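Project standup — Tuesday

K.O.: blocked on the structure for the chain from last sprint. Re-posting the sequence here as requested.
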Amino acid sequence: MSRAGLAKKIFILLVPLNVAFSGSSYPSGIGLPPFCVFSAEDVFLSLVDPANADRFIGYRVVEDEPEQTSFPLPGYGLQPQGSSAPPEISENKEVFPPGMIPASKLPVNWKSRFDNGRVSFRFFSDGTAVFRYRDLEHRLTRVSVFRAVRDGLEAWMWLEADHDLPGAFAVQQCLRLTGADNDSWRHRIAFFPELSEFDLWNTGRMRSLTWVACGDGLREVEPVWEFARQRVFHRVTDLLSYDERERGKGLMTTFRTDAGIALAAAGSRAVDERLRVPNGLIVRESTDGGSLVGMYWERSVKVSNHHPADCLHSYVDLGPVIDGRGPVVRGKIYFIQGSREELLKHWHFDFKLVN
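H.V.: unblocked you, prediction finished:
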């Protein structure tokens, strides 16, 4: 399989607890982690709550081509940083028992370990998981480590290589929030109608559910503006589906950090200053305003809201690589029951500006 073909298949699927992320509902007396991460259908992974395994949030670990420069990008010191070190990963740790993997009404085949030579995955009984991707084209390995916690999933990424990379190596991460009205094939990857802008817009209510960083807070991302300019389609969802079918990309609103603006300049690409953000925090709110998911990575160059796939993107710089190892980059996927202000409290606690 080509690298591009493989990249289209690598996802993490996340299933929040009790839809509103309110806590574990495992049988009493069993010391299970708050989230379980499993391999599903070859290179797919799933984060599962046994009590409600019919809501998925997709997380695509390898997507699109990396963006590279021959020099380090500036501006990361202006983005909040975490302080946690990745948990120690040992192949001798106990892998989650296959007999305890929950059943689902959906056509899944969850496993706690997977290895095909290019991709390897282990989910351990202590709630940690490790995902490795051998990038043969660039002669390196991407390592992703995840740890289940009560308000989401802590994450770390880095590169390992037998050679140095002098500049940026920005990789795309994808948080997918597919709803009921989207193409049915997408439901293998994600299904969460309560967080779907596509479902909301399909009813004619052109209200945004997505927010990006603004100062110490958040600002709303305007709904797809192209719909207001056209006269052919009666529903924004028809326009989105047509655009993806004809151009193969769909519609995307992209926001860049200072590092992302430097990356765009290196490629002689124009940047709309109105779409500048201080960091890579991006959030999707439920239609009733009662719960949220969010994604944040250090060293973000850009974030985007993408349709019709109904996903949030973050481009994360894993370079440079010196002496065979890139910087350890911290991130977190949040699952919060409450307001945007509550999510911001969690984020400010986890990540702080470092002088």
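K.O.: great, moving the ticket to review. The helical segments are 3-7, 197-202, 226-229, 236-247, 258-266, 340-350. Residues 6-10, 15-30, 226-232 have pLDDT under 50 and may be disordered.
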